[in-house]
Amino acid sequence: MSKPDRPTDPVTTVRATGLSLTQAVAVGVNTTSPAYSLAAILAPMALLVGYSTPVVLIVSFVPMALTSLAFMYLNRRDPDCGTTFSWVSRALGAKPGFIAGWTIAACGVLVLGSLSQTAVEYGFRTVGLVNLAENRLLVIGCAAALIMAMVVLSIVGSDWSARFQTLISFAQIGILLVFALGVGRVVLSEGLPEFTTAWINPLDRGVESLVSAMLLGVFAFWGWEAATNLAEECRRPTDAGKAGVLSTLILLGTYVLVAITVVMYLGRSDFYPVGESGLVMVDMSGVALGPLAVLVLLAVFISALASTQSTMVPGSRAMLSMARRGALPASLGRMHPRFKTPWVALMTTGVIAATWFVIVNLLSETAMLDTLSALGTLVAFYYSITGIACVVYYRRHVVGSLKGFILVGLGPLLGSLGLIIILIVGIQTLTTAANDGSGSRILGLAAPVAFAVFILILGLVAMGWRMLRAGGFFQSRPQVANAMQSPFVLPSERPIPAGGILVDCNHSLEFIIASIDAAGLDSLPAGTPVYLVAGIAPPELMGDEDRAVHDALIDDASQLFLHVQRYLKGIGITRTIPLYEDSDAANSLLLAAEQAQPTRTVSGHRA
């Protein structure tokens, strides 16, 4: 009998080319635009919560960190570039998945204009061309052109893009740390403020101030999950999930360090802004760095510039994944024949973003601000639904162990609930005219809320159109993770030592135990590995029926393995490694033997 070919595992296979973990982390860091985000939120956050600003940043980080667990563990078993779209579709169904993917793409479109505008303005300011930075029509035209230039850069090659992103991420984080040291030097020379409980009590100024400040904190952290969209472009697919978690940790450390020094400085003026730009770090740069103040302008410029490109990743990859699954037209899934990038999705994202930016800026000077205010509700929505999808998809593993309960159950669920609360409070806050961008109303709704509702209505219309044109995707059913789709690394996915005993588990439990007794395994030396193998290939079925039978065979095998492991433990054998082989019973032994290279095989009553 010939040995069957072992299928390639997309989760554990390491590619010869692609993005490294460091490069994926750089994308996650840059998509948040840390220098710009931090410069923009520190002054208003300090006004809201005072000296507890660093603590509030940490509190804001908690739901993001808990949600990042969902991104990491969902990515482990479904390393799809569509991330939330694919995961929500798998766990909750096609319709919620479509809306989630639509929201990701919409967020990218909405924010690109603001980022490119900031890059252009501060690019001019960095080189001393302040008059050009204040020319509104020139800035609008240059910003739209910058969006399209970044589209071209993204299409031409991910290798160049990754080097660009990595360089800029190190540069802006470095400048932020230099700025923090500069402010710290000034504070030390003028005397440290008195330490009080206000430093560690985020509720010192009330619940409303805390929640409003947390909304700013969530905005500052938004974007790290772009790294998880790179699963199909990383050398190791699981690095994408790890990069998302590492991105949040790097951002947290940088943000808190800068915030501590800034609030020490601002505390002398009761936390009121020290300048007119609206970016506290820009206004403080002269005091903190003296002749090197231009570095802060440079950091804001390169931060927005890098984010203009990296922000295209989530939206374009969501379109690509949706197109491949039939949720969007197949043309959006076309890859460039030379550069192997989703050029149609990238071009579509760029054209729509540039067009939207130009139109809303020509209609109103505050329309873009209202658009950005709407982002908070959309971001909180798709982050929270990702956490819920994690709990639902891994529900069997949530109740199977304490580790599963905490990491893929309680953690993501608490993160989602926190974001939902922030979402609700954020909408309530935006309904007050004084709290939204322009104070304007559209059909009786605050402009940011109206924009968010408009985006969701467009998504529902697009979903209805696709259901009529190509409804195959929408007929897929929600799934639940089986034993092979554990969120944690399976024993068979770790390096397997050669030698040991191979036990054929393609029989009834009684038959297997009788075979073990006949083989005399109770006399094995301690630590001898015992491999339990079962074939899980279903008969030749199709579609959902094939998947259902396949899942049932895996469930049966996992229950059988559990009973066999308990029996083996009872006779002193503790090192067991279950092997699920995607083949029939006979070939499963050949595949397992090729992998484990056992010294003995227990099959039937023969040792």
Output the keywords.
disordered N terminus; mainly alpha; Rossmann fold; 4-stranded parallel beta sheet; Amino acid/polyamine transporter I; two-stranded antiparallel ribbon; 607 residues
Fold and architecture overview:
There is one protein chain. This protein is mostly helical. It folds into 2 domains: 24-363, Amino acid/polyamine transporter I; 489-602, HUPs (Rossmann fold, 3-Layer(aba) Sandwich), CATH 3.40.50. Helices cover 64% and strands 4% of the residues. The chain has 21 helices and 6 strands. The protein has helices spanning 21-31, 34-49, 53-77, 84-92, 94-126, 130-133, 136-156, 158-190, 207-221, 239-266, 280-289, 294-310, 312-325, 343-363, 367-393, 395-398, 402-430, 447-469, 509-519, 543-570, 585-596; strands at 441-442, 445-446, 501-504, 530-535, 576-581, 600-602. It has a 4-stranded parallel sheet with strand order 5-4-3-6. Strand 4, helix 20 (543-570) and strand 5 form a beta-alpha-beta unit. The longest helix has 33 residues, at 94-126. The radius of gyration is 27 Å and the shape is globular.
Reconstruct the topology from this structure:
Blueprint (H helix, E strand, L loop, with lengths): L20 H11 L2 H16 L3 H25 L6 H9 L1 H33 L3 H4 L2 H21 L1 H33 L16 H15 L17 H28 L13 H10 L4 H17 L1 H14 L17 H21 L3 H27 L1 H4 L3 H29 L10 E2 L2 E2 H23 L31 E4 L4 H11 L10 E6 L7 H28 L5 E6 L3 H12 L3 E3 L5
Parallel strand pairs: 3-4, 3-6, 4-5
Antiparallel strand pairs: 1-2
Membrane topology: Multi-pass membrane protein
GO molecular function: transmembrane transporter activity
Keywords: Cell membrane, Membrane, Transmembrane, Transmembrane helix
